[in-house]
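Hello Y.,

Per our agreement to keep a running log of every chain we model this quarter, I'm adding this entry. I've kept the format consistent with earlier entries: sequence first, then predicted structure.
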Amino acid sequence: MNKEVIVIGGNHHNTLSVLRSLGEKGVLSLLIVVSHDTKPYVGYSKYIKEKAVIDSEDEILSAMYSLHRSSDKAVVIACSDAISSYLDSNYDTLSVNFILPGSTEAGRISRLMNKNTMTQLAKDCGMSVPRSWVVHTKNDIEDVTYPCIIKPLVSKNGSKADIAICSLKLELEKYLEHCSCRKLQIQEYITKKIEFQLIGCSLNGGEQIIIPGAAIILRQPINTNTGFLRYIPIKEFQYDRESCAEFIRKTGYSGLFSLEFIRDKKGTDYFMEINFRNDGNSICVTASGMNLPYIWYIYNCGRSIEKELCYDSMKEVLVMPEFNDIGNAIHHRISWCNWLKDVKNTDRFMEFSRHDQKPFWMYIVKRIFHI
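Predicted structure for the entry above:
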């Protein structure tokens, strides 16, 4: 029997990618959007069965019960760190009626979201990690080496705007004076050859780990890795598979995830972080030929996933977050001619879909008319 599926996310292409990945397989979602916009653009997708719009994560539990009316447990997909942490913290209550991403131990995933904790676990699994420091004030930075990169210690407690690169101690001191995030992780800055993500799905606490390929960022935007990217099937990409698998198994995590790495000019891969949720770039995996949200869904419906594990038929694709990436042309970081060539060569866009166009046009209308 097919179960209901509840997608919980912000008014963002991350959420939209899950709705479309499931919808293109014939599965309509129950959608919960955490947004102050009462008519979020993602809510116009044709792949929604029913939706609820809420102001904050604190309203998730009541929204889940208001949408879920079946006697079977509903399968849940989370699309932000704060949502994953909320589900994890309320695991004991919610797991009675819902199949949740996370661990069977309430609170475990929230603890692992601490970057210092996940970095230590990565080291224990044999991964290389940059030197790092945990700071609270500018008095904690005497041992820091430069250049360095600063991030919220726990992603859900900060924002992308809290990420910065500092070349000098004075720059770091000025940053700390104005940063709103109280606890930060500072890491040595690695001069990279490439930055890549391993977007995957873990089943039964890491008993089966599916990593179909690697997303390589081609144009790095400020404070995020949601940029123009190339997705390469895993048969064409080398990485330390066993260390990554051991890392996932030790977390005990089940669900959609992404591992982020930087590869330096000598070929060493440095672990940066894990996201215990659907990744914002995940539509690239669907475009390449493997549908991870659908695999998570049918696995939890008790159906075989073997036909969906089509590693050999996957293809390399280019994927563009068009609304973000157009800024590179507007601000003359690349020429309009080159940007339009990239648009022509792109295999999948993060906002536009010819099969589900209304969210794209509603986004534009809302931006133009401020509604």
